[in-house]
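I am writing to request your help with a piece of structural work I have in hand. I set the record out below, with my sincere thanks for your time.
___
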Amino acid sequence: MSRVTEILRALTDRNGPFEALTGAQEGFTVRLRDAEVPARIGLDGEGRIQGLFFHPAVPVSGGIEDHVRAIAALPGCAAVLVASEGQVRAEHAADRPLAVGSAFKLAVLRAVAGACADGRLAWDRVVRLDPGWRSLPTGLLQDWPAGAPLTVATLANLMIAQSDNTATDALIRLVGREAVETLAPRNAPFPTTREAFLLKRADAADLRQVWASGDAAGRRALLAGLADRPLPRADDLAPEATLEVEWLFTARELEALMRETHHLPALAISPGAVPAGRWRRVAYKGGSETGVLNLTALVTARSGIRHGVVATWNDTRALDPERLLAPFRGILRRLDDEA
């Protein structure tokens, strides 16, 4: 019970004192002064607690503008955009390019969807897993045998729902780096995750400096020089933030990419950081690494109105994810109240 007490103390310290408990064993809600916390409890045959799970808290106070101001006040650099049917309702620094981690995979998905639409690729095309595509986790495919058959759709589903880096690199190779660069010219040359990990090694500070100061031609030459290097181990990577090697997108660009791809099956598999609500459909992709956190969602209300919410936070110091997650969920809660 000491662990439960510790969790409850952390929740009340952040969200105010306990007020009420609603629901049943299958799913109940802890109401605190400033937030609601969905939770589940599992009991054994004798009615003793066997498992207890608290979902992230959802703020119940404050309007959309209040939550936007909370994001704007974060240390380092932050950006946020809230739009309904593509029309901006609230924003802060929405045109500032920031590191977004795995949210860049929305651009890869958009490029693949375009290639499937014009016949250069097909969702049901089967490819064999190439060892040269292997990257570090997150994901599953880095552990699969070479030559395993996979469809383009499976790769896309894993890239988005599991943030599978090997699937991502496979799709970049299949669709062509240039196709992704057309959608994200600021990021040309567009690195694969394998290339990014090689540049983010603890002993690669000199390469990161070359990348940061180089033009497109110099960066392409640098990537070509990495082609034969072995994939690093996870513990080879620099522990500090390495923001000089990143995929940079504005909140406005990510909102547009999400509007263009939200209908694709890959984006409906996992709701990610979007709290449960009365949504007809949830499309979500986020990204995180040391010093980087992005949350990008497009939710469709029962009325059919689509709302896009993008929030990004960068800092050279380690981030407390809850400081971005809480106002992000608060914005979605307010939008849900409108449904």
In short: The longest strand covers residues 35-43. The chain has a mean pLDDT of 93. The longest helix spans residues 322-338. Residues 2-55 form one domain.
